[in-house]
Give the backbone structure.
Amino acid sequence: MAINADYLGREYPAPEPYEVTRGKIREFAEAINDPNPVYVDREAAKAAGYPDVIAPPTFPVILGMAGSAQAVADPELGVDFSRVVHGDQGFRYSRPLHAGDVLTAITRITDVKALGGNEMITLETVAEDAGGEHVVTAGMMLVVRGQ
Amino acid sequence: MSRLRHADVEVGTELPERTFPVERADLVRYAGASGDFNPIHWNERFAKSVGLPDVIAHGMFTMAEAGRVLTDWAGDPGAVVDYSVRFSAPVVVPDDDSGAEITVGGKVRAKNDDGTVTVLLTARSGGAKVLAKSTALVRLA
């Protein structure tokens, strides 16, 4: 099924703010086997100048994943999830995420194109903190492989 | 650990190369932590049914491991201003006792006037280049 190009620009606001917690940061750091103390030890994080433990650079994929899941699940968009592979990923940070952050995220479809029998859909998730300040923008390109 | 100094880095400075093991259990744990439960990352039957050679690692797991080389080198994960990768080949993870390995290296490509450096990262697994166009912007002390 072809991706519906009419959905370029469509927005998927996260249904509720995302709370960054120490437990989730620890779980994520353990899942990537990264023992860096600034992810799990508040004193180490404070010594490095942060208000609380910070999240690894790829942690915001959790926000992007939630946003892209909304888009992929949109029946009108026409993405065949079983044929999706991750094409590229980028993050642009105004600052690292830290425990205690409450982030509002909105995901937009920024590009849809066909190439070599595959279709590519690019999604951008912008996250702001409770004060309305930009924290991170995550860009994700998904490849829907042709049959 | 303190942040690396901009003055101590030159264009061409290499980041220490490291090799990271990845087994099926890592992918299950990563699926849970990240929320990416695509069955191509844990279900061999499903992966093969959609034309993949076997279960493949999450691209984001590879990006995270490459990120460890970057953040350990920089001395502060919060120093990363921008980080982007292209997944050029899958990391195929067989269901055996050894799994796969991801070998990550990097090099400073540019020193920028704003106190940042541009780093190029490379990652290989099973003879294939699994990350391409992988660059990071890191703000050093």
About this structure: The CA atoms of residues 118 and 146 of chain A lie 5 Å apart.
